[in-house]
Amino acid sequence: MDKPVKDCGDFTGQRRINYDAPRGFLRVKICHKLTYNGYNLCSSTTIQTCKMEDDWVMAENYEIISVDASNVDRQGFFCYMSKPKTPGYRQKRLWLEQRFAEGMKIKIIHEIGGRKVGFIEYLPGEYAWRAVQAPGWLVIHCLWVVGKGKGKGYGARLIQECLDDARQQGKQGVVMVASNRVWLAGPKIFLENGFVEVDQTPPFQLLVYRLAPGADPTFPKDWEARAARYGEGFTVLRTPQCPYIENAASLVMETAETLGAPARAVELQSADEVQRMSPSPYGVFAIVYNGRLLSYYYLTPDEIKTRIATLEA
């Protein structure tokens, strides 16, 4: 249907029932487009997911916002939304400029009348900032649903967005480096949505959703040799991919100073460096001590000291 909107253009709404929804749900997709003299001024997608429970229906209204170079300053990239002046936020914002040019997609779940409650970030495997070999695939960096957004099927919906993009781009499939620890999504939601495990290096699992025949992605096999290259003392490998890395890296350097141990930071500058040099599949952050991987995620000073004691025991 078409109808005028305050004499400034046309609003077109298209409603489509989509049965490819989480089990027990029915999804309705409504596409909105505002045009003026034949030009597209803006567009958005509103999703209504109806959960069937006995003799009643619970409806949830939300939209999926696609973030790119044209709207990232307005929409943000989900993480650190309340802290746009912090170094971690600014570093990621600058990092995104080149990533968007390489095909990165960020999609955010926004509940109508409410808040942004989840997001997914992914890009072609050739440019992935994970230590995985996955040319011809899309690689998910992050999948995160928070607070009251949990339990509504949003994670599965965001995964489906990525799968749809992979199909449209003719990719072999989609890849996720998963872990049941922190700073990565766990494997459960991916396995429930058709992914399978093709490789592992504890605590990481390499999961894929295949769309076409071909070689599966793989992890490198030289993790210990990679860590050993960094020698004595602390080495913090870092990137701007996650805005939380700035604080995590600073804490390691402060702890090293307290312990009187030598410390240095190594900034990985490209996806290629991450894939070749990272001592863990996570890729974008690592704490190495005396040539051994201490952690791929944030540690408190006490946790750092405990892990050192364990390594030296």
Taking the sheet with the most strands, its summary is:
11 strands, mixed
Task: Please name the CATH architecture of the largest domain.
Answer: 3-Layer(aba) Sandwich
Intertermini distance: 72 Å
Average pLDDT, all residues? 86
Q: Give the tally of β-strands.
A: 15
Strand fraction equals: 35-45%
**In which order are the strands of the major sheet placed?**
1-2-3-4-5-6-7-8-9-11-10
- What spatial form do the alpha-carbon principal axes imply? globular
Level of helix content? 25-40%
**What would CATH call the homologous superfamily of the largest domain?**
Gcn5-related N-acetyltransferase (GNAT)
* Domain module count: 2
Q: What ranges have pLDDT less than 50 throughout 5 or more consecutive residues?
A: 1-24, 32-36, 51-59
Number of discrete helical segments: 8
Looking at the structure, the CATH topology of the largest domain is Aminopeptidase
Helix and strand pattern: EEEEEHHEEEHEHEEHEHEHEEH
Gyration radius, in Å: 22 Å
- The CATH class assignment of the largest domain is Alpha Beta
What structural category characterises the helix and strand content?
Answer: alpha+beta
Secondary structure topology:
Elements: E1 2-4, E2 10-18, E3 25-36, E4 39-53, E5 56-67, H1 72-75, H2 87-101, E6 105-111, E7 116-124, E8 138-145, H3 154-168, E9 173-179, H4 188-192, E10 196-201, E11 204-210, H5 223-228, E12 234-238, H6 245-259, E13 263-267, H7 271-277, E14 285-289, E15 292-295, H8 301-312
Parallel strand pairs: 8-9, 12-13
Antiparallel strand pairs: 1-2, 2-3, 3-4, 4-5, 5-6, 6-7, 7-8, 9-11, 10-11, 12-14, 14-15
